[in-house]
Amino acid sequence: MEERELVHRASAGEAEAFGELVSRYQNRVFHLAFSFTRDRAAADDLAQEIFLKAYLALPGFRGKSEFSTWLYRLAINHIKDYLRKMKKKMKREEPLEEARVKLVPDEGDMTQEEEELMEKRRKLLEKVMATLPEKYRIILTLRDIEGLSYEEIASFLGISLGTVDSRLHRARKLLREKMEPYLRQEGRIS
Amino acid sequence: MNCRQAERRLLRSFDGRITAEERKKLEDHIRHCSRCARLETEYKTLLSWIKPEEVPEPLPHFRERLEKKIASLGRPEPEIIWQPILVRAATIALIGLIILSGLMIFLQLGKSTAFTQTEALIFQENPFPEVQQILNETQLEQRNLRLMFSSLEVQELRRPLP
Questions:
Q1: Cross-chain Cβ contact B15/A143 below 8 Å
Q2: Helix (H, G, I), strand (E, B) or coil at A99
Q3: Cβ distance B42 to A180 under 8 Å?
């Protein structure tokens, strides 16, 4: 069945049609949520909330854009709310300075140590990403993790291509500056 | 090409958004600039770290779990097409009303609060007995004098504010 038809039926309250749309988009929405949370259960919860929101908001969808664009926008807005909540929570928890980790493995069992190293990097990067201003975190995730094109990002965020370019530039620069001490440490082993 | 331009082009190059000519200039710059060469390595490392090793699938029965939640919610209310228009119109009308009321109060405050002569005559205690006394004056000179002085005695009354 055509997507337009499915959307029309789902907005009229047909649960089966909405279920079909869920099947088509659940992976994309889940991946987007996972890119921000890096936690399977949290991403699953977020994706469920996003689809529930979409179901309730669907009667207001006028079809001015593609359904996927509308859904992505809704998902990004929901994730923004989630990030704000998490930021407040993080402020109460461990500060970044205390999260400094050793990124150079010692000699010995490299395989196990490399795995631990990867995990440490991942956690460190998550923490640093969480300290970035929201707009930078979102654009980095959409481009460098999700791999969306400039055009898609511009459409989802409602900004121009020029803004995507300059915002992405600043975001990457800021991330590198924050990660510089760890990157230098990494450079010593390569 | 200076280092600032090189960094911008370097970042664009990761997205394939530079021309072949720009890429060649960038490579030439990096070959001769140790700072930009280091930046290139750092950015490449960072971008390789940022991508998750593997992206898992949603937890099992994603759709079924969602459908259960939807069933407990019931059908969403179909949005009436004129509802948003009505809400906007009501908001505009309310703002207009507030502005108009404010304007009226402002104009009212700027207006003089003094009574006109006619209003003063009406609001004053009945002036006719006094006028009658003057008119009853038998001496013409006395009557004229009293008329002259009474006209000078006009006192200003202030309009009571709401």
A1: yes
A2: helix
A3: yes
